[in-house]
Amino acid sequence: MGKFKKLGIILTSTAFSVGVLSPMAQASTNVKEPQERVAIQVASTETKVTKSMLIKQLNTLFPDKFKFVTEKDFSMGEAHYFNDDKTIRYNLSFHKTINGKDVYGDFTFKGEDLELEYFDYQPANIAEALYPVKYSESEAKKIAQNFLKKLPNTANYKLREDNWYGDFGFSFSRPLSEPITYSFAYSPTHNGVPLSNENLNITVLANGEVTSMYRHTESTSKATFDNLDQKKNESDILAQVRENLSVDLRFMIDTNYQTGESIAKLVYMPPTSFTGVHALNGQWHTMNGFTSQVPTAKGVEKLASQPLEPRKKDITLAEVEELAKSFLKIDSDKVKLQIESVDERENENGETIYSVNYMYELGNGSGYGTSFEVNKATGEITDYWDIRRDFMETDQKVEPIAKDAALAKAIDYLKAWAPSYLHNYSKPIEETMYDKDSKRYYFSFPRIVNGIAVLGDEISVGISADGKLSSLNISNHKIDNWPAVNKAIPADKAKETFNKGLKLELQYAKQDGEDNHHYDLVYSPVYNGSIFNGIDATTGKWIQNVDDAKEKPVISHPKAGGELTYLLHQNVLEVKDPANFNADAAVNKGEALKILVKSLSYGYYDFGPYGRGDEKQSFNNIDKKHPLYGIVEQAVSMGIIKPADQFAVDKELTRQELAEWLVRVLNLEKAAKHSDIYKLNFADAGSIDKAYTGYIALVSAMGLIDGQQNKFNATGKVTYADLAISTVRLAKAVYEENDGRHYYY
């Protein structure tokens, strides 16, 4: 391949992410969580592809679309390939400002044919992609399909209509000043059967623009496939799965990412010991291949029967620095370890954590840096990823140690670096994954509460082929109340529900291995329309109900029905019973502020009780325990409201107060305060408080708040319908301003 250098990790492991989906992902057929993917730069002398060639290919795929971009505007990145895919990639990008709007495009082509693998494009004008939209989802689907036809080698691609990847109801609001987008996933097929773990995703703006595409597919030119005619009857395999179906009782961590609060739910899960059945021979498919024996889950076996002493109680800053030097040391004269800083922070459990930022400096002036974390109270390592292998030469031919030996190594490392946690965690009860690309074992040690494993809380440990510790992450949510196990419905009843909701999906699955080009035909279980699904053990209902997701509720109202429904679907408006919702009811200040803040932000507010650590209490009556604390403090930081003695959460919001809030959002308060320069044309102008004259004049002129029968009615109540209309109009005004101030995380 010639000269090269590593650019660094492009996609880090998700095997250690803290979340509900990680354990459940093991239940999917061939859903392999991505491990580290390292981009390796190719020297310019090693390729003959030029910028002009890439531009020509781009214009072939997108005739006339990018005529406004000159060759000088384009930049060509370094060619590269990946550690798990030797096909060379080429990057082309541009960035321009047109009529005050940022326009950019980023494109990746791969291989000798310069196949478009990825692109992301932001057009100049997206106003028509804001509510109300120009194109519906069904119309956007046709646009995506037409675009797909323009791409080579996609004739056999099929739209995924199912809820294959599921989201467990995670709901994040997004700024309504961002464009509405539609995403469509396609899978390549062979003889009409989809290839698992391969997909092509297309995103279409609601104004009809195709703005992104990512293709994660492999060449099948050398591939062989099981004969579809030889598959067993689906009914026979379904009977086999049902006969061996078991259900597991688990706790599941559910985190509200707007408040940071976590609660535990009691759930029944389908078996994760197998992920499907071979369609030809009936063997069970597991994460590590096929077996004729029915896979069974292991029982709970705690890592320690009694609590162990912490590694180092109340470790000091100086001691952490010494720990870092010893733990991170490297046996090389060409690499120097540099401890950049040690920071303190409070995590979501209220624990003080040291974050050690460090770098390995290479002799050529470059370096690799990251951080690891230490619990101050125990001196134990809670988060670590070894980056040394990213720049140190390793023996690729080394045979990995056996799985049992790797497990023993992992437990020894935990006893050395995090002993006080072990009595709350079990040895792996699910199949252990071995990644052949990175030559690493990934062990998941589940947290155990009242004898039951916890989904979303585990200790994840990576062990390299030579037995060294490659990663460690401890997830341990602070939960005050765990559901009583005796409240769960009987396991037989849950099993009956699973059996009723069980269907099989036929797909081709390729096993791990560099020289393996064969696709096996596999029947994969799908539960109530989703591969990731479970049952609430206290109610007996599915965690995900695909039919409910398809039938979104609608709020009826003569003036604001569309706006109210839009806010509801965007998770900005919270309504328990949409059919009987009274949109003409007055909205109080607390609820109005919540709607406004959520409409302008991404729905995550990093405030208390264990947030950023620098929180202030802006109102005496809104402390960290108040349910609106995060919303109120976010609103203060955005300038919508100002700190005072009290915030009247339950008081009805008036129209003049709403006018003041909207003007502050748009950063026009200085202009609004010059009340003498404004003349109000409302019939009740004489009764309006002069302090609000400028605010009312501005929102009226901008069309953010409508008058009522030639009156503004400044002290009148704001209804949910009024607020919905103003909120949607405000979003478009914020987009027109386009200075980025209003996107808050």
From TrEMBL:
The keyword Signal applies. Keywords: Signal. Residues 1-27 form the signal peptide. It comes from the Bacteria. InterPro entries: SLH_dom, YcdB/YcdC_rep_domain. Residues 615-676 form the SLH domain. The keyword Signal applies. Pfam families: DUF4901, SLH. This is S-layer homology domain-containing protein.
